[in-house]
């Protein structure tokens, strides 16, 4: 090896050693600076937050949002948008403003036509004609739609109502004049009325007639359990008998017959009108009879009468107590006008105490009917007490 090569190796090694030493010194210096910086006691913003700024998480109470009045800031911050150099454009003052054009878009509301409302009313009225608590209901499911003209009047000694489900999915009362076709039928036989409860013979005859009709149209018919419905009919009839009360208030002459012309004038003044049956009736605004005035002996009115009777059919009259109070006043006024005696059906005078006692009994009857879900004067009551 020549002297030149040896000198080059020594010089290169010295340079490498110098670079290594410089790097070590720089690293040592930065480490010392970092230790001095982190050695100072800096507060931890998470651990040393003031307690009144932290809400306990497990307080056990639900915190509802509270809205408190906030004072308006003195200066409202304005968001600045980037400015663009846009050439001025002449604005037509006749054009609508943005506020006029940008109206909120609302979804169109579904329009209900008068025809739809009428159909809904028809269906509600139809379905209210049958009630499982009042009727024995047979369901007929047709394989092919059955024309209304082919649905018979099922013979029965009690009320029968037949509803049909049209091909458009609408329930209606079936009658021979309808041109509808039905995919399903409901035939209902009432369980009880003023003639008594439904008997097993009556029910069997009805079921046979419905079954025969279904067989003729290759339809499937389902019946409720007959024994259970017969028991329900008996229970319903017993309840109806317990509240079926007809109140009579009689105005009896003291020897001289009442002139009917004077009675007619008083009745009309009191709001009673003579009906096609020849009797005087006090009616509601809807036309339902609330109480009636008849001859005590049930004979047609003539020129005179020896006795008059106000009749109040308790379960068939809605708003019974106010009607009874009005009836009592009218009966007393007529008795005073004709100088007659106001008595009950046994001939006992109807003094104010007696009338108050009748009123208390009416209150009890109405409470029983309400508990049973048969309101006086309702459709159910009119059916049961017919």
From TrEMBL:
Q: Does Cell cycle appear among the keywords?
A: yes
Q: Where is the signal peptide?
A: none
What are the ZipA C-terminal FtsZ-binding domain coordinates in residue numbering? 243-362
Top-rank lineage group of the source organism = Bacteria
**What membrane topology is annotated for this entry?**
Single-pass type I membrane protein
The family assignment reads: Belongs to the ZipA family.
Pfam families in alphabetical order: ZipA_C
The compartments listed are: Cell inner membrane
Q: Where are the transmembrane segments?
A: 6-25
According to UniProt, the name of this protein is: Cell division protein ZipA
Q: Which residues form a coiled coil?
A: none
């Amino acid at each position: 090896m020549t002297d030149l090569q040896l000198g080059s190796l020594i010089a290169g090694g010295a340079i490498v050693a110098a670079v290594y030493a410089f790097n070590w010194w720089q690293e040592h210096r930065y480490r010392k600076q970092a230790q001095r910086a982190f050695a100072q006691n800096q507060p931890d913003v998470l651990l040393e937050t003031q307690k009144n700024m932290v809400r306990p998480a497990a307080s056990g109470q639900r915190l509802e949002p509270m809205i408190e009045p906030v004072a308006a800031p003195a200066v409202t911050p304005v968001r600045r948008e980037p400015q663009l150099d846009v050439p001025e454009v002449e604005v037509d003052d006749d054009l609508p403003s943005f506020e006029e054009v940008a109206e909120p878009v609302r979804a169109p509301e579904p329009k209900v036509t008068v025809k739809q409302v009428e159909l809904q009313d028809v269906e509600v009225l139809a379905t209210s004609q049958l009630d499982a608590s009042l009727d024995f209901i047979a369901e007929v499911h047709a394989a092919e739609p059955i024309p209304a003209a082919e649905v018979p009047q099922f013979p029965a000694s009690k009320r029968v109502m037949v509803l049909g489900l049209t091909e458009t999915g609408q329930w209606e009362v079936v009658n021979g004049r309808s041109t509808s076709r039905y995919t399903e039928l409901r035939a209902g036989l009432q369980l009880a009325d003023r003639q008594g409860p439904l008997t097993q013979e009556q029910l069997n005859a009805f079921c046979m007639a419905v079954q025969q009709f279904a067989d003729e149209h290759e339809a499937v018919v389902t019946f409720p359990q007959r024994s259970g419905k017969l028991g329900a009919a008996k229970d319903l009839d017993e309840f109806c008998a317990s509240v079926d009360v007809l109140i009579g208030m009689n105005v009896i002459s003291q020897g001289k017959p009442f002139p009917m012309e004077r009675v007619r004038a008083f009745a009309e003044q009191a709001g009673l009108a003579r009906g096609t049956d020849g009797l005087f009736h006090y009616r509601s605004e809807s036309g339902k009879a609330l109480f009636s005035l008849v001859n005590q002996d049930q004979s047609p009115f003539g020129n005179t009468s020896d006795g008059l009777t106000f009749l109040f059919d308790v379960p068939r009259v809605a708003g019974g107590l106010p009607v009874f109070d009005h009836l009592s006043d009218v009966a007393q006024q007529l008795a005073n006008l004709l100088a007659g005696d106001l008595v009950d059906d046994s001939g006992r005078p109807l003094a104010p105490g007696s009338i108050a006692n009748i009123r208390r009994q009416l209150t009890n009857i109405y409470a029983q009917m309400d508990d049973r879900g048969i309101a006086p004067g309702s459709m159910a009551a009119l059916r049961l007490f017919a």
